[in-house]
């Protein structure tokens, strides 16, 4: 009778352990997959904002369009080196001004809502980047414009523990006869998920159950 009870106990433990492993495995398989919604290249646009000269930041962000979600990507770049030939300082008709430099760091921020109005967000850091630009003024009426190109790479952590690496390219400018600046950009990123704490907890429970089963086997 005792041996039958012990045998039944082992069977129950094996079934519980199998269910734990299956459930944990399914969570980990899902968690480590690439969330396709936020992987790829996305167009960005901002009217009335732009990066220029030594200010390589758009803290108000650029809107992402169109796509499976609506979002906003903002950044603040830390300029490490900067050169400007001061060709339009002071501004004079027909002047040309050139600048370029590098980014040593900075921060990025992103938020989005999908078609079901589920919120998503991440924050991260800029690993490095480069920029260059050209400014000019027209004549006989003194009106000035500029064109700035910026590219940088970043890493980020999502609020749900996803992880992204990516690259951003932004062209900011203002036409000489234009009313205001604008920016067009491309956000390219790969997003992957990390194992959820609950999945790790289930895995731990499964290991504990297995250890108990092995221990009891030598006691019976």
Topology:
Elements: H1 2-31, E1 40-47, E2 57-65, E3 69-84, E4 96-114, E5 119-137, E6 144-158, E7 163-174, E8 182-192, H2 197-219
Antiparallel strand pairs: 1-2, 1-8, 2-3, 3-4, 4-5, 5-6, 6-7, 7-8
Helix pairs in contact: 1-2
Task: Considering the chains and any ligands shown, give keywords for the structure.
2 helices, eight-stranded antiparallel β-barrel, 220 residues, alpha+beta
Helix content, binned percent: 10-25%
Q: Characterize the main sheet.
A: 8 strands, antiparallel, barrel
* Overall mean pLDDT: 81
Structural class: alpha+beta
- Outline the low-pLDDT stretches: 12-33
- Counting structural domains, the number is 2
Strand order of the largest sheet: 1-2-3-4-5-6-7-8
Estimate the strand proportion. Answer: over 45%
Determine the N-to-C terminus distance. Answer: 13 Å
| Topology pattern, helix = H, strand = E | HEEEEEEEEH
- What is the number of helices? 2
Radius of gyration: 28 Å
Give the strand tally: 8
The coarse silhouette is: elongated
Structure explained in plain terms:
The protein has 220 residues and is an alpha+beta fold. It has two domains: 1-32 and 196-220; 34-194. 24% of the residues lie in helices and 50% in strands. It has two helices and eight strands, in the order αββββββββα. It has helices spanning 2-31, 197-219; strands at residues 40-47, 57-65, 69-84, 96-114, 119-137, 144-158, 163-174, 182-192. It has an eight-stranded antiparallel barrel with strand order 1-2-3-4-5-6-7-8. Strand 7 and strand 8 (182-192) form a beta hairpin. The longest helix is centred in the N-terminal third of the chain and has 30 residues, at 2-31. 23% of the residues are buried. Mean pLDDT is 81; it is low at 12-33.
């Amino acid at each position: 009778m005792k041996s039958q009870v012990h045998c039944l106990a082992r069977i129950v433990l094996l079934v519980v352990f199998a269910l734990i492993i299956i459930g944990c495995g399914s969570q980990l398989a899902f968690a480590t997959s690439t969330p396709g919604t936020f992987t790829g290249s996305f167009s960005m646009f901002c009217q009335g904002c732009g990066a220029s000269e030594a200010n390589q930041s758009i803290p108000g962000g650029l809107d992402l369009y169109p796509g499976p979600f609506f979002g906003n990507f903002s950044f603040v770049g830390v300029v490490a080196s900067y050169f400007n030939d001061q060709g339009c300082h002071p501004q004079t008709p027909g002047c040309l001004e050139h600048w370029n430099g590098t980014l040593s760091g900075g921060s990025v921020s992103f938020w989005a809502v999908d078609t079901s109005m589920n919120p998503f967000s991440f924050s991260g850091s800029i690993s490095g980047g480069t920029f260059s630009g050209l400014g000019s003024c027209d004549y006989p009426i003194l009106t000035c414009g500029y064109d700035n190109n910026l590219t940088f790479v970043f890493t980020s952590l999502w609020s749900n523990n996803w992880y992204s690496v990516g690259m951003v390219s932004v062209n900011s400018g203002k036409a000489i006869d234009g009313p205001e600046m604008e920016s067009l950009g491309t956000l390219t990123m790969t997003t992957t998920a990390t194992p959820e704490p609950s999945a790790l907890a289930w895995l731990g429970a499964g290991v504990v159950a297995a250890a108990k089963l092995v221990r009891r086997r030598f006691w019976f």
